[in-house]
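Table S7 (text form). Paired inputs.
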Amino acid sequence: MIRVLTARHLKYLPLPLLNILLKLKSKEITPILLYHAVMDQTDNNPLLSGKIHNVSPEIVYDQLSLLKRYFTILPLDELFEQVKSGRNLCGLGSITFDDGYKSVIENAIPTLSALDIPATIMIVSNLVKGGVLWRDKIRFIISKGLVEDFLGYLNKIGSMSLSKENFYIDSKNPGKFNSKQLDRMIEEYLKFSEFNLIMEKNIYLSEDMLDGITYKKVTFGNHTSNHYMLSGLTKEEQYQEIVDCETYLQSLNKETVKVLSIPFGGPDSYNYETISIAKKIGYRGVLLSDGKVNKGSEVSRLGMLKLDRFMPENDTKRYILTLLS
């Protein structure tokens, strides 16, 4: 029945009927949810509004409740172990939170605890240590109307070339630049131009906040050291990004997973070297975020397991439609 109904038809069905269809569909899929911020709103922050993936606490509760109702939710490591052992994944699911927003501690962990379900927080280690995300620096430049001035600075020093019209998107294109180098250019520009980089650092987890997490079903994983676009880095830079975060994870008195969450998570954001490094340091697999619901697992040329994730919208009906589509 579900195969006969198209997405165009499904969106007109009432929620009770969609729930029945989801119960049937759960036997065929393995959803891994990917959340970022869990805030009531981001509109009051010009650096965040419309720029980050955010789902409100109430909607997160509804979405996770539905996941628990129709799927067996496993810790991430256990899900990858199921793949490795060749077991059927259909009917299983998992939950992840990338980047390490402090709203996950404030608003998501209480929901996880209330529903008694596991999840993994994929941290960017330099953010936890008080650093500034390079994408936030890009957003800062845009919010202050400095794009044209910054591009002029890049041209003046004979560095990389970006267009004003597509600045935000092009700045994370691995075919056009090395994001680590771009981050350094931004730092030099802001220092040279005597602009103060006033960032909302407190939107991210701190080391003290990590220490204060007591819910036992939360594990932690590697989302690299700086969230650079890995495929645009050299092999040595990729190794440093992945291993530095792993070293930091091992310094925590927390349960960690041997899975790499690839920043940006699309097909162009990693390469052969990324998978090779993850395998070399003993990881079980990698997580993508290409917006797909798993119907099985994929194995790379190196034998590394790859599973995809999708980012739920801030709308429970659309969330169900994504699981059904």
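Next pair, protein 2 of 2.
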Amino acid sequence: MRQRDINTGMLDFAKLRVAYGMTGNDYIPYYIYNRYVSGVSNNPRYPNIDHLTFPLGGVNSYTLSNRLGNENLKPELTREFEVGAELRMLDNRVGVDFSFYNKFTKDLIEVLPRDPSSGFSEMVSNLGDVRNKGFELSLNLTPLIIRDFSWDIGWNYTINKNKIERGRSFSVRFWRSRHLCRRRKAYRTI
């Protein structure tokens, strides 16, 4: 504004920001259904061989993946809103930057553990909805400028709060042998 001969007083620069965005995240389509993967033999007990991967010598081998498919998997959707201001004053010796953000993720996709006795050790699933909000405040000072030397001081303060808005309920049960069950009368569900 000073370039147009408008008197801004001690203010050298001012900018207001407002932003809104929406992004999606889909999982790899091959993990939605049960799938077969190349066979692997770890430590086959042959001398000087630690690991075999198929196809080997023209022979293919496939095995069912340990990740259970999930046909009910929904895409993850994130919406974010941010508002902020940036100010510089006193010949750019003092600067203030402030931002407030609010981010909401619906149907968060995550790999969850499964009981290995089911034949699978993990499953991709929608965990729930998560909100992440907070603000950032930044203060920049230049108290000393002498010819080719300047002393710059920067300070930053941030508050971030995460909250699970809606969570998927699931439990993992640890089974014990009969001997341990006699000593402990109950087992814990997490």
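The chain has one helix and ten strands.
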